[in-house]
Amino acid sequence: MNKPEHEFFPVTDVAFTVCPGDDPKITERILAKDPETGVATRILRYEPGADSTPMGVQKHDFWEEVYILEGSFTDLTLGRTFTAGMYACRPPGMPHGPWRTDEGVVTFEVRYPA
């Protein structure tokens, strides 16, 4: 199976839901997802003050591309802050995070199989 086909639509038609980890300050808007592989295109939102430390360092078995649309957040492992207009391309297994933000951040992400 693949992600579903969608013609242009307002992304605001898709509600934000709490991400795995159950922190209500970290939500996602899934725009398209393959239910078999779990790969997805989403908008991720960290509200001001969000901190993913309880989820620890993340590693995925898929590729992940991330573009920061608004705000900023800090990778606590790297001690670096990343801001709007920055981009990351992470191969499977690349460690990243945990993250914290004071002002909030919104990202656009595309995930696909290795």
From TrEMBL:
Segments forming domain ChrR-like cupin: 25-108
InterPro entries per UniProt: ChrR-like_cupin_dom (IPR025979), RmlC-like_jellyroll (IPR014710), RmlC_Cupin_sf (IPR011051)
Pfam families: Cupin_7
Designated name of the protein: ChrR-like protein with cupin domain
Lineage: Bacteria, Bacillati, Actinomycetota, Actinomycetes, Pseudonocardiales
